[in-house]
User: What shape does this take?
Amino acid sequence: MKIVFFGSSDFGIPCLEYLVAKHVLCAVVTSPDRPKGRHLRILPGPVKTWALAHGVKTFAPSHLDAPDTFHLLSSFAPDFFVIASYGRIIPESLLRIPAFGGLNVHPSLLPKFRGPAPMEWTLIMGENITGISIIIVEKGVDTGNIIIQKEMPIKPDDDLISLKLKLAAIAPEALDQAIEERIRGFKGVPQSGLPSYARKLTKEDGHINWKRSSVEIANLVRGVVAWPGAFSRIHTPHGTKLLKIRRASVAQTHGSYGQPGTIVSLEPDIVVACGDGLLRIEQLQIEGKKELAAKEFLHGYHRILENACLR
Assistant: This one.
């Protein structure tokens, strides 16, 4: 089959590896290069980097509805469009180009967590099962018929980084089966159940509300670890500083242990009172400094943390 792939995130790389091995990967459509890093250098994204390394034609159109984009993609006479974490809605005019239409590789069990940040919100909401949905692309956001779904358990210590790797690893097999089903004429089944929307995260989504339960805060830390990161504020001799919580776990699920945000213990662990229960902080980073394990952090910041209240 002749395939045009749309994607921007490294989540799609295993699917690209599968497509180039088993099909004719005509082209990759990805996001334009953007400034990255401390020095804001213009660098290609992971999908473009992969495509260039494999000699695959790559395009990053600013406007998908431009006539030039339509003519360019039509010239490949593709059988399928495959979309995986592209971040933009494909116009209906383009979806009419491939013989079998478009397939979207979505990292949730649709209709749960439609939208741009399904993995993040799956973790934030404390789900213990997730999966891959391969759906037919239509004008709605992640609303198309389901061709295939693959379930996967979420482990208590999974965060966004590990979950993305696991889901990306099972996506190619699901995509392979979905392509075969579409070739055989299967049109999928409508999504059923209560839909939910996983909106794009904002920086403020990472701000910890210590009045919430320890379970909820631990889930937040897991879900926002890549960006924006879970953070609080702490008073230091040099003013109020941002404190990022990079890894945490539940020390106690229930009970009141003082004002939410109060550090109630430093030995053997950094433990913080929540609205309900206690949170154990395992990895953290103070503004302007490197990330440290809790025990290392205490060597330099014990006095700052002693009896402190995070806000």
Observations:
- The chain has a mean pLDDT of 96.
- The chain has two domains: 2-183, 203-305.
- The CA atoms of residues 111 and 195 lie 5 Å apart.
